[in-house]
Amino acid sequence: MSAVKADKRVARDAAAARRDAAHAAAPGAAEAAAERLDAALADLPPGATVSGYLAFRSELDPAPALTRLAARGAALCMPVVEAKGRPLVFRRWRPGALTTMGVFGVEIPADETTLTPDVVIAPMLAFDRAGFRLGYGGGFYDRTLAALRAAGAVRAIGFAYAGQEVAAVPREPTDARLDMIVTESELIRCG
Questions:
Q1: Coil, helix or strand for 28?
Q2: How far apart are CA 111 and CA 105, in angstroms?
Q3: What is the pLDDT of residues 155-167, one digit of tens each?
Q4: Where are the transmembrane segments (predicted)?
């Protein structure tokens, strides 16, 4: 195991505890963050495709933001893990749509129609102001963003509690930088 991978493993435990604490301390954070995300995506054309996520554990819940985006005409989708070492695929989703249990105990849309997102809203354990995120360790978002960016433009937005910020996320050359990070207290433009 490389030194960076070992650093990430240690950082994940501390980051999960910080996220749990931020979640407990900020019951109105999802709505405040939704307002910031809505403003950040004000230039999104009707019909654009946005990938969100169905909140897991103490992740900041993007549901209020996704509901607003759907009302403005965005097509929504959710990430699905199909196999280890592969990029995510994105299944069509609407607020209130049926879900099923996917890999790692995460809910996924029951609708198997796949879409290609113009915007990816990503959960995380931690982030830094340079735009790097600490995820769960599978590299799914890094592979996915690399593939999407190779095929064309995509906007990558981290969605997290302000309390998840760290000075610097341990990083490897394959880690994908986010374009912005939205929290309940600010919008951070990265890179």
A1: coil
A2: 17
A3: 999 999 999 999 9
A4: none
The answer on whether 59 is annotated among ligand-binding residues is yes
- Distances in Å between the Cα of 130 and the Cα atoms of 8, 133, 180 are 17, 9, 9
Helix, strand, or coil here: 130?
coil
Q: Do the Cβ atoms of 82 and 136 come closer than 8 Å?
A: no
28-45 residue pLDDT tens: 898 999 999 999 999 999
The answer to whether the annotation marks 138 as part of a ligand binding site is yes
pTM for this predicted structure: 0.95
pLDDT for 178: 98
Q: What would the mean pLDDT of 90-117 be, rounded to a whole number? A: 95
The reply, when asked if residue 139 is annotated as ligand binding, is yes
Mean pLDDT of 57-78: 95
Total count of residues recorded for the chain: 191
Report the CATH architecture of 3-189: 3-Layer(aba) Sandwich (3.40)
pLDDT at site 83: 92
In DSSP terms, 89 is beta-bridged to: 80
Domain boundaries, the chain: 3-189
Distance CA 94, CA 166 (A): 33
The 3 state secondary structure assigned to 102-141 is CHHHCEEECCCCECCCCEEEECCCEECCCCCEECCCCCHH
